[in-house]
UniProtKB/TrEMBL annotation:
Keywords: FAD, Flavoprotein, Mitochondrion, Oxidoreductase, Quinone, Transit peptide. It comes from Crocodylus porosus (Saltwater crocodile). Catalyzes the oxidation of hydrogen sulfide with the help of a quinone, such as ubiquinone-10, giving rise to thiosulfate and ultimately to sulfane (molecular sulfur) atoms. Requires an additional electron acceptor; can use sulfite, sulfide or cyanide (in vitro). It is believed the in vivo electron acceptor is glutathione. One of its GO terms (biological process) is sulfide oxidation, using sulfide:quinone oxidoreductase. One of its GO terms (cellular component) is mitochondrion. GO terms for molecular function: FAD binding; glutathione-dependent sulfide quinone oxidoreductase activity; quinone binding; sulfide:quinone oxidoreductase activity. This is Sulfide:quinone oxidoreductase, mitochondrial. It catalyses: a quinone + hydrogen sulfide + glutathione + H(+) = S-sulfanylglutathione + a quinol; ubiquinone-10 + hydrogen sulfide + sulfite + 2 H(+) = ubiquinol-10 + thiosulfate; ubiquinone-10 + hydrogen sulfide + glutathione + H(+) = S-sulfanylglutathione + ubiquinol-10. The keyword DNA repair does not apply. Belongs to the SQRD family.
Length: 447
């Protein structure tokens, strides 16, 4: 099973398009993808996902396109947040994909290769075929890796019907097929015992499934089960309370501290470990199974000098500068920033990191501080979304002067239609740094 881990999977960027600076970047050719034409760049970006493309666009304007390179092996860039709706049949998979060549900023070199080793002490990295690239400044945006293989029987289980996963391009359409084929019985949804990108996504498809079954007259014969390794439904109390009301009203069964460890696809059984009782397992029969895979840092970051003990890039949580190497920076899912891993977080981080690097280049200390802002549009039906926004302290940090814990049709259209537009035309081109200024305006300067 291929791991698709370079693009953040939950986009919560705000679609205030009329306030967005018009893009001055015209579509055009960047340097052809290949092994690096040069062996030194002023700014080297590792990863061509959300964070990598965004920062390469910002760095191009700072040091010039010819001085920036992006290392990325994949030929396709995916807007993964829309996969929640693809898995529920509300969007087509093709709408989430663009050629990498089209999203890398014009003139920035695309090095179509994989990173094999980071050597920050010598300010260089090694790519495939032992190609060495040196840099003045390094931005690490390598995303997060999916590990379906860590669940016994799951990789081969995808060859059977009734199993899907919205986290991979290879399995998201299987979710929709499993939903359409469902007739009666247990529909089981999982959340793993690891960090994940977009922690709301595992339950979004559950709400959409429940809505679909109601719409198609199958709800009365369905038992919807959410087995999560976490101890609560959501990490922010305000939104957790709203979600629990929905769960109660829709008769959804939630089991906490349950971690999927095995799938027996031939007999349609899912085995969960009870985390409160180590070694004790529970078996659930399923007629539909949606799996959120275990996730972790990319392999190249494990035991790397730039990483903490767990393998995440070790950065200052306010400036995104590396704690040891002052010419190294991190952004997005691969970092140890203590906030949810979403594209909304990357948007806010990109604005801070831009300011940080600008000051470092002038031999000044960074002053701009990232407050942990992140967001997750919690899709609760085919026409409803709760727009959760919060900070490092798990406190709501809402942009609009309304109660965003309420399900709203307007927020659904933001998620489904406007956010993708802002992603492709604003964030990836380096013109969107999150809704902070808009929030301040709408709240009359008050937090």
């Amino acid at each position: 099973m291929s791991n698709i881990g370079v693009v953040s999977s939950c986009s919560c960027i705000h679609p205030l398009v009329h306030l967005l600076r018009p893009s001055i970047q015209k579509k055009g050719l960047h340097t052809a993808a290949r092994l690096a034409a040069k062996d030194y760049y002023e700014v080297l970006v590792l990863g061509g996902g959300t964070g990598g493309i965004t920062m390469s666009a910002r760095m191009k304007r700072k040091v010039g396109a010819g001085n920036v390179a992006v290392v990325e092996p994949s030929e396709t860039h995916y807007y993964q947040p829309i996969w929640t709706l693809v898995g529920a049949g509300a969007k087509k998979l093709a709408t989430s994909a663009r050629p990498t060549a089209r999203v890398i900023p014009r003139g920035v070199e695309w090095i179509k290769s994989r990173v094999q080793e980071l050597n920050p002490d010598k300010s260089c990295v090694y790519l495939e075929n032992d190609k060495k690239i040196s840099y003045k400044y390094l931005i690490i945006a390598l995303g997060i890796s999916l590990h379906y293989e860590k669940i016994k029987g799951l990789p081969e289980g995808f060859n059977h019907p009734h199993i899907g996963s919205n986290y991979s391009v290879h399995t998201v359409e299987k979710t929709w097929r499993a939903l359409q084929d469902f007739k009666e019985g247990n529909a089981v949804f999982t959340f793993p015992n690891t960090p994940v990108k977009c922690a709301g996504a595992p339950q979004k498809i559950m709400y959409l499934t429940e809505a679909y079954l109601r719409k198609t007259g199958k709800r009365s014969t369905a038992n919807i089960i959410f087995n999560t390794a976490l101890g609560g439904i959501f990490g922010v109390q305000k939104y957790a309370e709203a979600l629990l009301e929905i769960i109660k009203a829709r008769d959804i069964n939630v089991n906490y501290k349950r971690n999927l460890v095995e799938v027996r696809a031939d007999i349609q059984e899912a085995v969960f470990e009870n985390l409160d009782k180590p070694g004790v397992t529970e078996v659930y029969k399923y007629d539909m199974l949606h799996v959120t895979p275990p996730m972790g840092p990319p392999a190249v970051l494990l035991n790397s000098p730039v990483s903490d003990a767990a393998g995440w890039v070790d950065v200052d949580k306010e400036t995104l500068q590396h704690k040891k190497y002052h010419n190294v920076f991190g952004i997005g899912d691969c970092t140890n920033l203590p906030t949810s891993k979403t594209a909304a977080a990357i948007a806010a981080q990109s604005g801070v990191l831009d300011k940080t690097i600008s000051l470092v280049m002038k031999n000044k200390l960074p002053t701009k501080k990232y407050d942990g802002y992140t967001s997750c549009p919690l899709v609760t039906g085919y026409s409803r979304v709760i727009l959760a926004e919060f900070d490092y302290n798990a406190q709501p940090l809402e942009t609009f002067p309304i109660d965003q814990s309420k399900e709203r049709l307007t927020m659904y259209y933001m998620k489904a239609d406007m956010m993708p537009f802002l992603y492709w035309n604003g964030l990836l081109k380096g013109y969107w740094g999150g809704p902070g200024p808009i929030r301040k305006l709408l709240h009359l300067g008050l937090k």
